[in-house]
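wait is this the right file?? whatever heres the structure
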């Protein structure tokens, strides 16, 4: 079969296979979707929405990219993107590309470096509710940012040789909005809808696949459910890990690994946002491998 026909056929078969699974397991799919919706409302929305709106508002303020040193644009991207939670980094970098503050090459590397869970999520949800210890939440947050900053420094060193500094495309000037806050709220709503959709869908999918796996093979339900949910949806994964491994010594480091892995839900959010700016995803993939390797190690040393 020709390659151009092979991949579409695989996609079609995969979609129909998932549709059949959802039809055969409607109750489990429903439970997964409900769990994903609850996690989104209680663990993500309160921490993510205010920061996305404020970030969008700040990015819409007028400025002149030509007069801003390159290093200051990098710092701006990191501070706004890395402290806002997933997928604020992608939103920030894409918006800065649209504003003419970054080149395509700079955007692709900063997309990878400016990617971290928000402090409110790690300290408030993971530290307080999952670890039951705020200080351990701080330690995990520090471990994430140490790994990110190391990657960020490598990124800056790599881009120091970047000859594209003059190829930044300055967009035609648009009249400043008289209501930038409303514009920020409007654009933030599309990001929130994207996050909610992916979280609920992948939570449902992970629930169904983990149940099918444990039915077909001799696999511990806790392990299968945690692995499947962590693979598809990070927040559901850490919730499952808490339910099944809370009293194990490995629990804090398992949470660190799941958060570093992010899950397909977050990767899909970043992909959709970055695609709007035609930003390369290769550095982003390398950045995720870097985080998976180093965040649990740094957290272990600080724990």
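ok assuming it is, sequence goes like this
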């Amino acid at each position: 079969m020709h390659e151009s026909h092979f991949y579409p056929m695989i996609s079609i078969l995969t979609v129909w296979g998932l549709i059949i699974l959802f039809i055969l397991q409607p109750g489990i799919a429903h439970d997964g979707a409900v769990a994903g919706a609850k996690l989104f409302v209680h663990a993500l929305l309160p921490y993510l929405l205010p920061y996305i709106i404020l970030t969008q508002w700040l990015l819409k303020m007028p400025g002149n990219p030509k007069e801003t040193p390159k290093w200051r644009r990098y710092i701006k991207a990191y501070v706004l993107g890395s402290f806002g939670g997933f997928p604020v980094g992608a939103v920030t970098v894409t918006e800065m590309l649209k504003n003419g503050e970054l080149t395509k090459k700079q955007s692709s590397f900063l997309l990878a470096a400016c990617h971290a869970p928000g402090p409110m999520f790690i300290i408030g949800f993971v530290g307080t509710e999952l670890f039951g210890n705020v200080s351990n939440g701080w330690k995990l947050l520090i471990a994430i940012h140490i790994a990110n900053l190391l990657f960020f420094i490598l990124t800056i060193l790599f881009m120091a040789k970047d000859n594209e500094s003059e190829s930044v495309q300055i967009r035609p000037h648009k009249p400043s909005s008289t209501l930038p806050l409303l514009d920020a709220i409007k654009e933030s709503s599309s990001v929130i809808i994207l996050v909610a959709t992916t979280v609920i869908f992948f939570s449902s999918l992970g629930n169904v696949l983990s149940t099918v796996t444990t039915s077909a093979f001799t696999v511990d339900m806790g392990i299968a459910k945690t692995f499947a949910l962590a693979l598809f949806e990070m927040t559901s994964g850490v919730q499952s890990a808490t339910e099944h491994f809370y009293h194990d010594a490995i629990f804090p480091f398992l949470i660190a690994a799941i958060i570093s892995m992010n899950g397909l839900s977050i990767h899909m959010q970043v992909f959709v946002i970055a695609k709007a700016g035609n930003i390369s995803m290769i550095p982003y993939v390398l950045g995720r491998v870097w985080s998976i390797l180093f965040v649990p190690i740094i957290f272990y040393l600080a724990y």
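Residues 27-302 form one domain. so i think its the right one actually
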